[in-house]
Amino acid sequence: MDFDYTPEEQAFREEVRTFLKDNLPPKEARDPGFLKTWLERVREKGWVGFSWPKEFGGGSGGLIEQAILREEMALAKAPPLGTSFMGLAWVGPGIMQYGTQEQKQRFIPDILDSKVTWCTGYSEPNHGSDLAAIQCKAVRDGDHYVVNGQKIWTTGAPFSQWIILLVRTDFDVEVKHQGITCLLVPMDAPGLEVRPIENMAGDRHFAEVFFTDVKVPVENRLGDEGDGWKVTVSALANERSSIGEVTQMFAKLDTLKGLVRNSKKQGRPASEDPKVRRQIAQFEAKIAAMKYNGLRYLTKQIKGEPLSSETSVNKLHRASLEIEMDDFAVELGGTAGVALAGSEEAVDEGSWAKSSLSWPNVVIGGGTPNIQRNIIAERILGQPKD
Amino acid sequence: MNFGFTEEQELLRDQVSRFMTEQCPMAKVRELMATDNGFDQGLWQQAADLGWLGLTVPEAYGGLGLGWIDLTVVLEETARGLCPLPIASQAHSVAAILRCGSEVQKSNWLPTMASGEAVFTIGLYDEPNWIDPQAITLEATPSDGGYTVSGTKPFVPHAQAADYLLLAARCADKLGLVALERGQVTISNQPQMDRTKPMGRVTLDNLTVAEENFLPMSEEDLSYLTDIGAVLVTAEMVGAAEAALYMTSDYAKERIQFGKPIGQYQGVKHRLADLYVDVESFKSLLYYAAWAADEAPDELPRAISLAKGYASDAFAELGIDGIGLHGAIGFTAEYDVQLYLKRSKWARPIFGDSDYHLERVATLGGL
Hints:
The complex is a heterodimer of chains A (386) and B (367).
Chain A: H1 7-23, H2 34-44, H3 63-75, H4 85-98, H5 101-112, E1 118-121, E2 137-141, E3 144-151, E4 162-168, E5 180-186, E6 192-197, E7 206-217, E8 221-222, H6 228-236, H7 243-261, E9 264-265, E10 268-269, H8 274-302, H9 311-332, H10 351-355, H11 360-363, H12 369-380
Parallel strand pairs in A: 1-4
Antiparallel strand pairs in A: 2-3, 3-7, 4-5, 5-8, 6-7, 9-10
Helix pairs in contact in A: 1-3, 3-7, 4-5, 4-6, 7-8, 8-9, 9-12
Chain B: H1 7-23, H2 26-33, H3 41-49, H4 68-80, H5 87-100, H6 103-114, E1 120-123, E2 139-143, E3 146-157, E4 164-171, E5 174-181, E6 186-189, E7 199-210, E8 214-217, H7 219-254, E9 256-257, E10 260-261, H8 266-295, H9 300-326, H10 337-347, H11 354-364
Parallel strand pairs in B: 1-4
Antiparallel strand pairs in B: 2-3, 3-7, 4-5, 5-8, 6-7, 9-10
């Protein structure tokens, strides 16, 4: 066991820090073109798609370097490396693994250059956690598919250019995981309609997406017909180091401690309240557990041992922390805790109140906590399937 | 960066695991539980011969000179099967002698501890629910060339098996450890839940202790020894908790109700998943604390408080759920899962409960 970095890894960390010093001005000093320049610079460094192979334009970076990069970026509160979160997280890896040569050339560079944003068409009105039961239908007609049906809760649909879409091409199957196909569809395709849904925080990030006789050329199919489930599962399994998240959560905990220091409960400093102190310490213990769990799993990966579904452990911690930390801050504010931006009394300009209404993005988005519990119970503990 | 065990440590784990299966299975543990001291000379000698008792003893004193992280491997595996041998107390005593002992004391005692010839134990606090120098109330009064000690140390782990006892005492404003032979004190069995962790109630009656058997202990030393005690106990909690979890998980796969294994019901499988998350988490925190004890002592207080602050309550809940998920059979004396519930209750307060450790995390974290 050691927490030392090799001279090369240490040098890489220094390189990232130097880059951040040179290219990340404080928020108030950023000009309107900042983000564009930032994206170009990190692209030049090969840090967008850092772990992707060089042949696809990625950085061919190792696991530890990736963890270092994420950690330093999170510490500096830097903007994301690339604008297409889903493109980088699973669409790109899916295309690299299952795509044709043409698809790779056509889609990968645009993801890396932040030219397109991808959204993900998985959930349907009647099928969310039970994803394999989807009904959105595609019928082959010569050199294209005709898609009819509906997707919902499609995060990013209102501002994406492409969607990775799961459709059913065969309804006559023995098990529901068969007969599913993955298509790559431009959002401006005729017959595709996006209706944004307002969420409880007042944002319009997600949407319903309707498909009426949408024609999708066969060359936009990712993987073989009927292989959509395999393509999706392996893309979602493209797990990344959670070190960046952990760094962000430690930073959030620090902010929360600052709030505690400046708050009163029953007329006394909140920082003297045993319940408050215990709760803060419990948050710290959970975040620290995420950190050391993550390092244990990273070590396993470096040694070439396959990970089972251990990453679900940190997903469950993250889910509860996302909800509980904001909830704690709102409660600490008393009546002012629920005040939103615009209120003179709002706590930290209403930012805690706002984020206490935004946790479902993270908590429900990537598989609900109960789905993570199923995964742990079934795949790690070997319990029978539901 | 490598947060994993070495090949040697994995071999050590296999060795201990084999020892437990072959030499100290649950039938043997239950046999020892029925005795007053839970001790078995033959097993103890094997543990010594395998080098486990001298793991943390420097080579100069006849040990292997390895670290707390190596000992963690041993304790995790022995506790998986609730081995009643006083390996943790022996190691805790080693830590105390290394930290507070004179050169003569080290040379006299450490080699006999590594070889297994001498069984040592250590008792720190007299108050049962207080981690603080003031919680040491046993008094030592200076007398001719030494001290007179009188009083009671109510909870000394494995006192009944020990040849020597290191007992914390207060001498005016100062603290120290008095080293005593078993024959000098009166030890009665402390009736308590966990018979795999026998505890003795030690009474001292106007005992004269020579200066050479006194180890001065500063408040920092006491704090360090409390932290090391917590590392040892939490390492055992990891192994025991994992065993209780898998015992319960295996039972859930076999027990059929309403026509299917109970593990198929989400009320059961989700609870098992949450318990798994907890055990994985305090295991990672404990590994870091054990590493810190070896390599980054400044970080030990915060690291062990995170680990034991998490483990104390999480293991206690697991102990209860282990019984609950088994149903009535878990309530029987015959089924082993109840022994783990008892261990969880034993381990929860010792060297600090979650309130103590989380409060310390808050303080060290700047609140």
